[in-house]
């Protein structure tokens, strides 16, 4: 059956499929997406692996997608409950395309699908999603042959064991590790990955799988959702805190004082370890990460390469350059040895190995990778983003040293001060990120940019 183009465009986005269950996404819709996906990959695969998160709607939607795949003659391998990086592992292990049912950090009413080709290669707007979208709009053609078969496979233990082969976790000093799963999939995967490491004592917080997220949103990028872990770390005397988003593909770090360690510092730390293992390697960083990242990579003999924001861009650039590692400001971390895919749990292992391999507390260790102050991402609701950006550029015209438009516009004001403005792909938002040598410099830039945008939008 054909579907209204506008409705499909609202759900099939640049990187994935996502919407409100029952209003924008239902079983009939995802069955058609499954059929279109099967047709997309039929020439390169005979089976599709499918996993899902703990949301109430996920099992039924995953089953409907499987029906759509099977109706096109492809087999289905179900791995059941999984984190997104566990699904990527299965795609790499089985060398077949995959589909993960999750809406990541979005509220309980949402669900969606992250798709990949064999070897966890991303499927985005330019690598198949547009074709899937167009076919769902036009109506997915039927298939004359017999339906595919379905099998079940548990890959959780294999996933945990594989991650531990990528990081040397032997000989670590004893560490007390607080883990906030946010009622998401880390409650499922952390015991399988971290549990077998003898040096670690895991202190679980919100490990109960619950897609209604009763304790806080599963989005640690929002500082409000780190508060419970920060308090828990201090109360329990933990050496480190780890917070994961709903599908557990992102990892955020808290030090022993309860202070957040920036994803840029984690990127630099992991990059330094990877460059010790692979001297002279290339490291990808998106343009929102701290300037400290390329500086530290270059100082350690590596080649830093700057990327647009977004996993499809990072993964493509990693494949193109042969990069050993990539990191984003949003705490997505990508590894060549993990099929160039992102894994928050693997990043956590790297941080734990670094912390446990020396005697300093995490706060002192992380300080070596923090060189600048940053604003974090600040969102403005705007009706006309280009007009706002033009007004900001006019305001700073006399101070600008350089600009580029790799992703939005990045403005270099010299002396370590810069900011980036870029529009959201899915919402009427303009996103600001700023960095300066100190907090006062960041506050000044944020205040000045905000004043211009507020004047444009008529905000009080």
From TrEMBL:
Organism: Mycolicibacterium fallax (Mycobacterium fallax)
Family: Belongs to the phosphohexose mutase family.
Lineage: superkingdom: Bacteria
GO BP term, pick one: carbohydrate metabolic process
Domain Alpha-D-phosphohexomutase C-terminal intervals: 377-450
Residue span(s) of domain Alpha-D-phosphohexomutase alpha/beta/alpha: 11-135, 159-258, 267-372
Keyword Isomerase: yes
GO molecular function per UniProt: intramolecular phosphotransferase activity; metal ion binding
Alphabetical list of Pfam families matching this protein: PGM_PMM_I (PF02878), PGM_PMM_II (PF02879), PGM_PMM_III (PF02880), PGM_PMM_IV (PF00408)
Keywords from the UniProt entry: Isomerase, Magnesium, Metal-binding, Phosphoprotein
CDD domains in the cross-refs: PMM_PGM
Cofactor(s) named in the record: Mg(2+)
Full protein name: Phosphoglucosamine mutase
């Amino acid at each position: 059956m054909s579907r209204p183009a506008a409705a499909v465009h609202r759900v099939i986005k640049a990187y994935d499929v996502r919407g409100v269950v029952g209003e924008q996404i239902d079983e009939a819709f995802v069955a058609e997406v499954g059929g279109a996906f099967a047709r997309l990959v039929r020439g390169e695969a005979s089976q599709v692996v499918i996993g899902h998160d703990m949301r109430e709607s996920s099992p039924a939607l995953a089953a409907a997608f499987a029906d759509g795949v099977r109706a096109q003659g492809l087999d289905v391998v179900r791995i059941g409950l999984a984190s997104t990086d566990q699904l990527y592992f299965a795609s790499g292990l089985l060398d077949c395309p995959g589909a993960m049912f999750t809406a990541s950090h979005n509220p309980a009413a949402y669900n969606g699908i992250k798709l990949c080709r064999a070897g966890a290669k991303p499927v985005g707007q330019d690598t198949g999603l547009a074709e899937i979208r167009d076919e769902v709009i036009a109506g997915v053609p039927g298939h004359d042959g017999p339906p595919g078969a379905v099998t079940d496979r548990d890959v959780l233990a294999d996933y945990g064991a594989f991650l531990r082969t990528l990081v040397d976790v032997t000989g670590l000093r004893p560490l007390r590790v607080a883990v906030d799963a946010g009622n998401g999939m880390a409650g499922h995967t952390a015991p399988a990955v971290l549990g077998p490491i003898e040096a670690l004592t895991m202190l679980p917080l919100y490990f109960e799988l619950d897609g209604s997220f009763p304790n806080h949103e599963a989005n640690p990028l929002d500082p409000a959702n780190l508060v419970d872990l920060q308090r828990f770390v201090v109360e329990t005397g933990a050496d480190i805190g780890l917070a994961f988003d709903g599908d557990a593909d992102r990892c955020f770090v808290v030090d022993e004082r309860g202070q957040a360690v920036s994803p840029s510092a984690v990127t630099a730390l992991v990059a330094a370890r990877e460059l010790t293992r692979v001297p002279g390697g290339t490291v990808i960083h998106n343009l929102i990460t701290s300037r400290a990242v390329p500086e530290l990579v270059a100082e350690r003999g590596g080649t830093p390469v700057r990327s647009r924001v977004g996993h499809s861009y990072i993964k493509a650039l990693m494949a193109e350059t042969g990069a050993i590692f990539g990191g984003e400001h949003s705490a997505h971390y990508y590894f060549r040895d993990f099929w160039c895919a992102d894994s928050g749990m693997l990043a956590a292992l790297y941080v734990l190995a670094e912390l446990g391999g020396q005697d300093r507390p995490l706060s002192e260790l992380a300080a070596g990778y923090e060189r600048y102050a940053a604003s974090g991402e600040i969102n403005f609701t705007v009706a006309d983003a280009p007009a706002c950006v033009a007004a900001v550029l006019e305001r700073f015209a006399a101070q600008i040293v350089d600009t580029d438009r790799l992703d939005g516009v990045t403005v270099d004001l010299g002396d370590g001060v810069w900011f980036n403005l870029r529009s959201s792909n899915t919402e009427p938002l303009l996103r600001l990120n700023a960095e300066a040598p100190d907090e006062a410099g960041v506050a000044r830039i944020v205040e000045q940019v905000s004043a211009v945008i507020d004047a444009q939008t008529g905000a009080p």
